[in-house]
Amino acid sequence: MEDDTEHIIYNMRIPEYIMQVSMQQSSDCLSAKMLRDPHINPPKLPTLVLVNSKSGGQRGQQFLSPCRVLLTPAQVVDLNEVQPETLLRRVLGGLDRLCKEGDHIAAAVNENLRIIVAGGDGTIGWVLGTLANMKLSHTPPVAPIPFGTGNNFHFSFGWGRKNVGTDLNSVRSLLIDVAKARVLPIDSWLATMKVPVASKETLEHITMPQPMHALDLPSSPNNKDNMQIFGGRFWNYFSLGMDAQVAFAFHQERQNYPKSFKSQLKNQSTYGMIGCAQGWYCVRCFHPASRSINYFGKIEYAKHDEDWQELALSPNIRSIIFLNLPSFSGGFDPWGHPSHGISEKRSLTEPQIDDGILEIVGFRDGWHGLSLLFPGGHGTRLAQAHRIRLEISSVNHTYMRMDGEPWLQPLPEKDSLTTMEISHGGCGFVLATERSIVKTSKSSEQNPQNKK
Description:
- The chain is of the alpha+beta class.
- It folds into two domains: 2-187 and 429-451, Probable inorganic polyphosphate/atp-NAD kinase, domain 1 (Rossmann fold, 3-Layer(aba) Sandwich), CATH 3.40.50.10330; 188-427, Tumour Suppressor Smad4, CATH 2.60.200.
- The protein is built from 15 helices and 17 strands.
- The strands form three sheets. Strands 6-7-5-17-14-9-10 form a seven-stranded antiparallel sheet. A six-stranded antiparallel sheet has the order 13-12-11-8-15-16.
- The chain is globular, with a radius of gyration of 23 Å.
- It is an enzyme of class 2 (transferase).
């Protein structure tokens, strides 16, 4: 058994000469022939390890060392030292150069590469988004290793809610799980937001989360409508309203006092207390100005090849979630499992992560959210959609959250209209264990790369 384990881990090691050539970014591959051991065989499960060392109450830092001992130091990278885009372009570009030189070992690594991403939900989305933006002909699958507060993405694919152990034996066991995991496709979703601004004003000063970035400035010659345009990609969820407000307050506290957020259990407790202070549980006593979604927002949606229709919202809905995975707020499923009768009456389909459909769920308050703790609990099932359009007005700011990353979004004057459109953005690939709770189409499981 021990021999089998060592054999598997041996096949996860990326030959050092490949990493050296990739990081050198040299177009001359003569050095590769000099560095390569002529007796090595192509690894069957080459695995690149990307670690957010600041995640998990700084425990991500402790994860680096055992990975480097079991694999090789060069294939284990701290994302706080190099950005995912820079790293992946170097590694995948280096593999491509070697392949063109006829290097059969590099070709095997390129074909079979897997990527471990150790961090929270935001880190996973960051790396998946980087891979999607690279538009690769063969996209490597990602194994999400939990080192966050919610770990919703990780739980969906069977990697657990709790942050993983960082001792040598725990990491060895984890690597075996990665080697045995199956590849599943997952939809990504593109969000494009247009914010009107004054002629010489921009919103570049906004601290946007990793998934979002400025696409066009009002000063651009192609921008005739004086719009600040932001764009981003999400894989799990996008939310608007009070839940995002609470997440933003928690995020600010953690940024200001990082030493107080080293325990996952304490983090979750702090999150609950902040939620109460923000008025998520007791709006009538605190923050009476907190508004329902339909006070400042209009939402339209469309199914596949159907016309737009307005989403009917109850005035007591204060948070709305556009959901791709069955895991939110610590691993709970806000959509739940509607009965056959309800599904038939409302033409609802079973959620699948590669069906090109988002589930739209609303929550009244924190107490409504606590219903997820009980069997059969769920949010308000509003609709299923292939395309979504939001119009926001009447407020000078709102709170948004994308794949675990919250932000405060300033808005223009009341008579101006901010819009956001959400549309399908293609597929990525994720490694799932046998404990995964997600569902996919049978055809995609047979050949997931065909779903791109």
